[in-house]
Structure formats: structure tokens, C-alpha cells
């Protein structure tokens, strides 16, 4: 299809005449299209959102529509424009909001001042140690110089000495020389000078002391030691002051400084009462009396790790009569006052004859939370507390279980080795008298006795214990009312005997009512079979009399 161009000089009439019979296709932004026949159709161009179309002559004009805003200038140095703008970017309303020209300033002391930005000038001044400066639109606050000269102060041999004002500024700086000499003095006032710059100070452990270094930490510790003592004993002559050489036991006096004690007649002497410095003699300040006993205890220390006591005593007190020793294999003895009072063995702790553990009425706690204990805070009474309650009480003659059970874990309860009750779990209970098993109760209910079983109501038959004695009448007739039967008991066992109700009718004295605790606790009739003997004997006698009568 050929296109005829439209010249810019063409009029609407020329355009209409030239394209009179031609269609024109219009396409919008959404790609919708329509064909217009120039010869017959009319093309209407309407204003859209915010626009209006106007034709004048052969001119079509599209104008922006007016909004609700009044034309004019909006905003000033004291008013801020407030504009409403629609989606097409048009201003639909315009107003102004007043600008606050006041600025409130507050200092650290909470003092406030108001600055009018329209009329006032704000001055920012430097305070203590500061100065302000303005250049262009930049305000700079600088620290003032102090009297100190800029530079480096301090070294490995000089310490900085600084003067600092209340604002933390260094106002003066100098140096003080460091002393590199360290003077050390020992207990005997011997001094030495250590040059820290060149010397090395060694901390050495002395007797009983060890030193160790880990990183920058020096540890000074007491070495583990055991003490041994040697006793030197001298008998003084009148006014004797110096004691040395061999003692009463031919031991030559020797001691180390600060490791000895001196006694006169058992009394420990103060250091001012004697002189002892050479390790071989003791000189009293005042002469001893004749027969006074001077004792010197000299001590020696050894490492416990290296020391083997090998059964010898470890002395614990000054006069040497309280010790720990193990001169018996697998046993440790504790000696107090020169006598063995207690002994520790592999599985036991023993209190030796003549010694006691006196609790003085206080509790002997047995468990971890202290609610199980033994006490004797009541005279002649021992209370056993379990779970913080007194459960058992022992006196000289009684054991009060306070309603609790008493069980024997060993299976025996008695007064001695020959008289006791023995339990065989879930099987039987045996009673021993004088070493003999006299009675047995079995789990199935059987009772065994190695001898007669005597009961007041049955086997005891002495006439002295009886009254109202009468012969049983019509014994044969009574036997006729009783049947001999076999039967099965309530527990399934079988037996033979009689019926209590039948016997009760003819011989009520032989029938008793009893509560049967081992059955169901109810009351039942029971038979005293020993009582039937009298009935049987009398019946035999009646039968004998009848036989005699028949023979006659």
C-alpha cells in the first residue's frame, strides 16, 4: 500500500480532498485501534484527565484543565508551601505553614536560652582550654595549647612525671630516674644489692621450704615433712649451769638452731632462761638445783616422701608421749599419754582396754544428712534415731521398739549361744533350749514338740484341780447320736472325726466356740477331743454292765 505524504503546507481542506475516500487507522497507548473513513466519518478528539480540547477554525488545541488551586505565589522566608498533588503531577491545592524562627539552647547545667533566628546572632565561644574559629561556613573548636612542650617523655630508665589539670590536660611533663638497684636483707640482717638491669635474683628454698616458677608466678610452699626428735636427759649437780656432752643415756648433745626445746623438771623453759647457740651445749641463766632433770628435745625434719617410718613412732606432742606408730603389721596404734588407746586395723577401729569414746550425751551421727544417730542424752538410756525420729530405746533391762518391727538378719534371737529362736526364711521357726531344738513351727502350720504339750484345759487332769465331778449318764445312748465321719476341710485336706454340732447336743461341755484367726476370723464350733475320752470310757463301762446282765 502506497502512502501519500502530508505536507506541512497542506490545509485541512487539502488533506480532506486528497484523502477523501481513504481510511485512517488510529491506535492509542494501550494498542487499541479504530479505522476512520475520511469521506464519511468524523474524528472527535476529546480531552482526557486534566485536559480539554478546543477547535478554532482549522486548529485543534489541547489545554490543561484548571485545578482547585488559585494562581499565585505560595511560600516565603517565614512560610513553607504545603501542596496537594494529584496522580498526574498537578497541584490541586496550595497553602502555607509558618516557620518557627526560635531556637532553644540548653547547657550541661540545664540553663536555657532562646535565639530568634530571624533577628539574633548565635555566638559559640571557646570555654576552658578551648578556642572557637569560623572560616566560611565552618565552625571549628580547638583545644588550647598548655605550658607543656610537645615531645616524648619516659624510657626504660626514666619514669614520666606529669602535671594534670582538672580538665585532664597535661600541663607539665618531666622525668624521674629509675633506681635499678634492689637491696635484700635476710633474718640475720645480712644485706646484698641486686642490679635489676644486669643481675638475676634467685629465690631458693631453705629447710622445709620449696620454690617453683610457672610463667610469671613464683610459688613458695612449705615442704611436706615429718618431725623426729632426740631426747637428751641430764641430772644436774648443785648450781650447774652448762650442760653438754654425753647425757644419762650416753647420747652426745647435738641440736640445730631453732629446732629444739629445753625443759627443767618437765617445765618448758622460755628462750630467755638459757643460752643455746653453738649446737652442742645449753647454758642456764640461773644454776639448777641438785638432782634437777634438764631435758633437751632436738628435732630433725625429713621429707615424708622419702621417709619410711618402718614401724617407728611419729611424735605429735612436746614431751613425746603422744604418737602414731605401726609396729604391728597392718595396724596403726594411737598412743596418748604413753599408752596405746586406739587401734586402726584393715576393717575395724578398736578402743583398747581402759579407754572409752565419751560422747557426753551428744549425738553420734551415722548418715550423711544427720537424721540417723545414737544418743544418750537421758541418763541410763540409749535412743536410736532413724529419719529424725526416736525409733528404739535401750535401757539396762529393756528394748522399746516403739511399735516398730524387729528383725534378725542373722536368723537368731536369744539370750546366749544355747538359748535362742532361729529363723529359716519362709520355711520354719525353731526354738532351742540349752542347745537342743525343742520346738518347731513350720510354714504349713504344723507344730512339733520334742516332749509333752501341756495345756490347762486339756491334759492337766489332777483331781485337785477339779470340782463338781459327775459320771456321764447314758453314755451309750449319747454315742448313738454321734456319727464317725470322713470329710474334706476348707483348705482341701481330708480327715476323719465327728461333727461338733452332733457332739454338742449330747455333751456340750466338749464343744467350744472360737474365732479362727487363720481361717477367716469368724467364730466356729471346736471339739476338745480329750473330753470324748470320758464319754467313750463311760460307754464301755455301760456296755460291759449290759453284757454282764445278759450273761445272768
Task: Describe the protein.
The chain has 552 residues and is mainly β. The strands form 15 sheets. The protein has a five-stranded antiparallel β-sheet with strand order 24-25-26-27-28, with no helix packed on it. A five-stranded antiparallel β-sheet has the order 29-30-31-32-33, with no helix packed on it. It has a five-stranded antiparallel β-sheet with strand order 34-35-36-37-38, with no helix packed on it. A hairpin with a 5-residue loop joins strand 21 and strand 22 (281-288). The longest helix has 23 residues, at 529-551. It is flat and about 190 Å long. The mean pLDDT is 82.
Question: Quick one: overall form?
Answer: flat
Strand content: 35-45%
Please, how many helices? 4
Instruction: Order the strands across the largest sheet as they lie in space.
Output: 24-25-26-27-28
Largest sheet: 5 strands, antiparallel
Q: Average pLDDT value?
A: 82
Keywords:
4 helices; 552 residues; single chain; flat; five-stranded antiparallel beta sheet; mainly beta; 8% helix; 41% strand
Topology diagram in text:
Elements: H1 12-18, E1 23-27, E2 33-37, E3 51-56, E4 59-64, E5 79-85, E6 91-98, E7 102-106, E8 112-116, E9 130-135, E10 138-143, E11 158-164, E12 170-177, E13 181-185, E14 191-195, E15 209-214, E16 217-222, E17 225-235, E18 240-244, E19 260-264, E20 267-268, E21 274-275, E22 281-288, E23 293-303, E24 314-315, E25 323-328, E26 331-336, E27 339-345, E28 349-351, E29 364-365, E30 373-378, E31 381-386, E32 389-394, E33 399-400, E34 412-414, E35 420-424, E36 428-433, E37 436-442, E38 447-449, H2 475-480, E39 485-488, E40 494-497, H3 500-506, E41 511-515, E42 523-527, H4 529-551
Antiparallel strand pairs: 1-2, 3-4, 5-6, 7-8, 9-10, 11-12, 13-14, 15-16, 17-23, 18-22, 19-20, 19-23, 21-22, 24-25, 25-26, 26-27, 27-28, 29-30, 30-31, 31-32, 32-33, 34-35, 35-36, 36-37, 37-38, 39-40, 41-42
Amino acid at each position: 500500500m502506497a502512502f501519500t505524504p502530508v505536507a506541512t503546507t497542506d490545509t485541512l481542506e487539502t488533506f480532506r480532498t486528497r484523502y477523501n475516500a481513504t481510511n485512517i487507522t488510529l491506535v492509542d497507548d494501550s494498542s487499541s485501534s479504530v479505522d476512520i473513513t475520511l469521506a464519511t466519518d468524523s474524528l472527535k478528539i476529546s480531552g482526557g484527565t486534566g485536559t480539554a480540547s478546543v477547535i478554532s477554525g482549522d486548529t485543534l488545541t489541547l489545554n490543561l484543565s484548571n485545578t482547585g488551586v488559585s494562581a499565585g505565589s505560595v511560600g516565603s522566608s517565614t512560610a513553607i508551601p504545603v501542596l496537594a498533588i494529584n496522580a498526574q503531577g498537578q497541584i490541586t491545592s496550595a497553602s502555607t505553614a509558618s516557620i518557627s524562627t526560635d531556637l532553644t539552647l540548653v547547657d550541661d547545667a540545664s540553663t536555657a536560652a532562646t535565639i530568634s533566628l530571624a533577628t539574633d546572632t548565635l555566638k559559640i565561644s571557646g570555654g576552658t582550654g578551648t578556642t572557637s574559629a569560623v572560616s566560611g561556613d565552618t565552625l571549628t573548636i580547638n583545644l588550647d595549647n598548655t605550658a607543656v612542650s610537645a615531645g616524648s617523655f619516659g624510657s626504660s630508665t626514666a619514669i614520666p612525671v606529669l602535671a594534670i589539670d582538672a580538665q585532664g590536660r597535661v600541663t607539665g611533663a618531666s622525668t624521674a630516674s629509675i633506681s635499678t638497684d634492689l637491696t635484700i636483707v635476710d633474718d640475720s640482717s645480712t644485706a646484698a644489692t641486686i642490679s635489676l638491669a644486669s643481675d638475676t635474683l634467685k629465690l631458693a628454698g631453705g629447710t622445709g621450704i620449696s620454690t617453683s616458677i610457672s610463667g610469671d608466678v613464683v610459688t613458695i610452699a612449705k615442704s611436706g615433712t615429718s618431725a623426729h626428735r632426740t631426747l637428751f636427759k641430764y641430772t644436774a649437780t648443785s648450781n650447774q649451769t652448762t650442760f653438754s656432752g654425753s647425757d644419762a643415756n650416753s647420747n652426745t648433745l647435738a641440736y640445730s638452731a631453732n629446732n629444739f626445746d629445753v625443759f627443767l623438771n618437765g617445765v618448758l623453759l622460755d628462750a630467755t632462761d638459757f643460752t643455746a647457740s653453738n649446737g652442742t651445749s645449753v647454758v642456764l641463766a640461773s644454776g639448777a638445783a641438785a638432782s634437777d632433770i634438764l631435758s633437751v628435745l632436738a628435732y630433725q625434719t625429713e621429707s615424708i616422701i622419702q621417709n619410711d617410718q618402718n614401724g617407728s613412732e611419729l611424735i605429735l606432742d612436746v614431751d613425746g608421749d603422744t604418737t602414731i606408730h605401726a609396729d604391728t603389721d597392718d595396724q596403726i596404734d594411737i598412743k596418748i599419754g604413753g599408752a596405746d588407746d586406739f587401734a586402726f586395723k584393715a576393717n575395724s577401729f578398736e578402743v583398747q582396754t581402759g579407754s572409752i569414746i565419751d560422747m557426753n550425751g551428744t549425738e553420734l551421727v551415722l548418715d550423711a544428712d544427720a537424721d540417723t544417730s545414737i544418743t544418750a542424752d537421758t541418763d541410763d538410756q540409749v535412743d536410736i534415731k532413724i529419719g529424725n525420729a526416736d525409733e528404739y530405746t535401750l535401757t539396762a533391762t529393756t528394748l522399746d521398739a516403739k511399735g516398730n518391727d524387729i528383725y534378725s538378719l542373722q536368723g537368731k534371737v536369744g539370750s546366749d549361744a544355747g538359748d535362742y529362736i532361729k529363723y529359716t526364711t519362709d520355711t520354719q521357726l525353731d526354738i532351742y533350749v540349752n542347745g537342743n531344738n525343742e520346738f518347731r513351727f513350720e510354714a504349713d502350720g504344723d507344730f512339733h514338740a520334742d516332749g509333752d504339750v501341756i495345756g490347762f484345759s486339756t491334759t492337766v487332769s489332777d483331781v485337785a484341780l477339779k470340782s463338781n465331778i459327775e459320771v456321764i449318764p447314758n453314755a451309750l445312748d449319747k454315742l448313738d447320736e454321734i456319727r464317725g465321719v470322713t470329710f474334706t476341710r476348707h483348705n482341701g485336706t481330708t480327715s476323719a472325726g465327728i461333727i461338733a454340732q452332733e457332739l454338742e447336743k449330747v455333751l456340750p461341755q466338749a464343744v467350744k466356740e472360737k474365732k479362727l484367726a487363720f481361717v477367716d476370723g469368724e467364730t466356729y464350733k471346736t471339739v476338745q477331743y480329750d473330753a470324748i475320752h470320758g464319754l467313750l470310757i463311760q460307754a464301755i463301762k455301760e456296755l460291759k454292765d449290759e453284757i454282764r446282765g445278759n450273761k445272768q
